Fold these 2 entries.
Entry 1:
Amino acid sequence: MDLAERIRNLPPYLFAELDRKIAKKREEGVDIISFGVGDPDIPTPEHIIHAACEAAKRPENHRYPSYEGMISFREAVAERFKRDYNVELKAESEVITLIGSKEGIHNIHLAFINLDDYVLYSSPGYPVYKTGPIFAGGKPYAMPLKKENNFLPELEAIPEDVARKAKLMWINYPNNPTSAVAELDFYREVVDFARDYDIIVCSDEAYSGIAFDNYKIKSFLEIDEAREVGIVIDSLSKTYNMAGWRIAYAAGNEDVISGLGRVKTNVDSGASQIIQEAGIAALIDHQDSVRKNVEIYQKRRDLLYNGLEKLGIWCQKPKATFYLWAEVEDGNSLSFADKLLEAGVVVTPGIGFGNDGEGYVRFALTQDVERIHEALERIKKVL
Ligand SMILES: *Cc1c(COP(=O)(O)O)cnc(C)c1O
């Protein structure tokens, strides 16, 4: 069977070989401690589950939802932006419900990218920033995130002709995989750049609810003119431990939101209202569960960070996200990951996030403290 060119042109799945090795270890009976996947291990809070159960009983929720999402869910998003950033959003025209943010990240390219349009994306990064443009016939162009720039892209380094051909830009803070954060001066710089070159900015803020030591996460939409040039995409997956529910949203520029909506009317039939009801509870009820979550991640972060430091492994202490981006001494992330796997510890080699990720491995803080202790003991032995 001949695959379409657009599939054949996708970058190879670099984790396939690693997955195979992990499966083999498991078969051999090795106890695996995995820091590999960015999938929260803590259950969804009880009050959110309760809201879904109640919503499931109501017949109006058994019918097709609207493609743009329930107005009550979109109002909850607006309320959340007012509460957390003091940003006013028009729920009707400036917010759309997504079936998980991955869906929106992919679909937005279908709305705005023509053949050979450039899409600027931060690298290392979430793989869909690169595959989305390829599906749409566009050209992904990497903006490297380097330690010396605090893992922020260097906009001045983008060649003039590329900037002129660029139609869309992806930024992501707090960042996966580097755990870097962005301040308002960076967002202002992005807005100015986007206005100069007429570029749509998509700010993926999937980790907007996970910050440590009372650090206050900023949003791209806090810049007054941001709404002229772009949107925020945010997800409930990480903040509310809802990865399996598939619920997220896009908010900001109404033409961008409406373009995305045009694609969605033709591709899906909207997010389940039962899930949106759960999402409303998550976004606007008390945020105690988020605080508890963050406390758990913070304990894990401290333990792992201090442990790695003692072993001579450098990483920046994360202010946000649940990742540690650790530098590999000899720069070879695949061989380092292999070495740890010998001890039954799984980490993600940075090169899997693109060439700019080489030299690092990512630890996801999705193991409890006992397992982190155990993993540190094992790492010490193999190094
Ligand atoms: C987890 C993650 C997503 C995907 O979130 P879903 O809403 O579950 O699809 C998007 N972007 C980044 C950077 C992520 O880490």
Entry 2:
Amino acid sequence: MANQQDPPSHGINDLTKQAQVVVVMVPLPAQGHLNQLLQLSRLILSHNIPVHYVGATTHNRQAKQRVHGWDPNAAANIHFHDIEIPPFHCPPPDPKAKIKFPSHLQPVFNASSQLTEPVSMLLRALSCKARKVIVIHDSLMGSVIEEARFLSNAESYTFHSVSAFAISLYEWEQEGKLIEENELFPRDTPSLEGCFTDEFADFVDCHYSKYQKFNTGCVYNTCKLVESAYLDFLEKETIKEGIKHWALGPFNPVTIPERSESSKKQHFCLEWLDKQAKNTVIYVSFGTTTTFDDEQIKELAIGLRESKKKFIWVLRDGDKGDVFNGEERRAELPKGYENSVDGIGLVVRDWAPQLEILAHPATGGFMSHCGWNSCMESISMGVPIAAWPMHSDQPRNTVLITEVLKIGIVVKDWAQRDEIVTSKIVGSAVNRLMASTEGDEMRKRAAEMGESVRGSVAEGGVSRMEMESFIAHITR
Ligand SMILES: *[C@@H]1O[C@H](CO)[C@@H](O)[C@H](O)[C@H]1NC(C)=O
């Protein structure tokens, strides 16, 4: 079972033709984006196509160090291009910021323009050697890969790091239309107010739309079984431009290698989960761009304890632009808290093996910010979500999870985003998800969806077929 997580390798016959095609991945330097393109690299490598993963040295290191479920250092045919960029400002997140968007990352987003020249050089070099150069770039890195337009044997594809739901809604609104005018979108889907800083909205304006027209197609970390209505919508929207769309997700592995065979030491929280009964633990984590202030941390801490449910809580600040640059704030818990939840809850301060935790039978719920990586990981492992959105696409992903897919409940109502979530709200949300008939029904639905999504990447499944169609297209 050692390699059960690896997609099967393809025959030697494909090899000669495909060896002349190379793929270049250009992610945006933020964890959720770095990770998804690294995971997609793994899927493409399994088709014997060499992958070049390009980023600043520190971001490549971050992506490799944090990946779950496989070892990129051991994967043949993946070439990491570690680019040294000039130092950029790297402030810590502000726990008190009113808008929760990680505005402290703006300097690193801006610094990604430093990659343009090295990426252009790489593309030119590859263009001379390969029959075809396929660039898959983050939707916000269009300017960095502009060179691809001028190379006759290069093609570029936009990777959307968010849900097809969020993208189709964005496209709809770009046409000046209202949410209520399209029955695909629930009427109470929130506007983007409070989701971004103005500075980031400008960054999106500068780096997204005008580069789309040079693209051959779009790839998504989603699955037709989950978002077919929105994928169909996107397909229709761009039929005139001839832009193609491929739903290649989930990118993350859908099975976890046998533990004894994994070389890494077992994380203590997995050993703890082994001792818990099925579906009794709620996993609480808010991703890599959430930073709570002390008051919110206290309410969450007390709420979890008072829920009387078992929990694993990953308590860390949001990432800085360079995660290896200096110490992180150690958020304060109420005095004696960890002792008071001994045997009931675990507080994890370091990087947690999220995918393994979600895949564990003892995990029965996920309290999440609803970043798209977390949503896809939870969906593919069949775990229902208690949604606590913070910024960006997360409030809208919350609508997708709770209203469209009906595999989750709302903890934090986005309309009340400026208010603290009290311990009472936390406690009752945990109980609603973990100990009610409604919660059990969601868990059942999530488990069924997880099973079909895992099946979709197996032989004959829809995501596998999408991947085969994408590979056939890029190697044509
Ligand atoms: C990022 O770049 C924009 C556009 O050049 C500039 O206006 C802004 O001040 C920069 N922000 C930071 C934090 O460097």
